[in-house]
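During the practical work, I selected for study one protein's amino acid sequence and its backbone structure tokens, as given directly below:
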Amino acid sequence: MPRQSGTKRAILDAALELAADNGITGTTMENVAERAGVAKGSVYYNFTSKDGLFEELLLEGVGVLAETVRSARSSQTGWPALQSMVRALLETVADNRALARLLAAEIFRTDRAWQHSLELLRREVLGEFIIPIRETSPPAEMDGRLEVVAGSVFGAALIGGLEWLVFSPERSLDEVTESVLYAISGQLVSRA
């Protein structure tokens, strides 16, 4: 990620916190400036519009997820790679709760100015999941649906992580990882 000024980072962090609590629609540039402790002009100097601010924030967040799952997969293949990727994604959700909440709310929106950019990164994340899914030898008829399968695994980890943090925070990372893997294991494990 490009190096950012302290002001720009403060603005992005403030926008993330506010949007996670109030949604993007319920967050104003004035709110962001106030939370970041900067003048409203500084927000507009760094981001010409609210759409530009949130596009950068979301692209940065999905970029973090893509790098997380790519690193987790690294030298592993098949089911072990998926296990590692789910665990790493859950760790990222736990470490970045506001980002996870925002992504869960925005990833499937189609009416946003940044949707095309977000879709490209989403496909990058799903592409990382497709590699080990394909290695688990799914039936041939699944080839045309691997992106849906990958989206299901990604979604299970993201939403499972939010469910954990909001409703079952007493659970350990290991328990939640096992639970998400159990939920997705059906055909993948039986063919691994």
The mean pLDDT is 88. The two ends are 36 Å apart (CA to CA). The longest helix spans residues 50-73. Residues 93 and 100 are 6 Å apart (CA to CA).
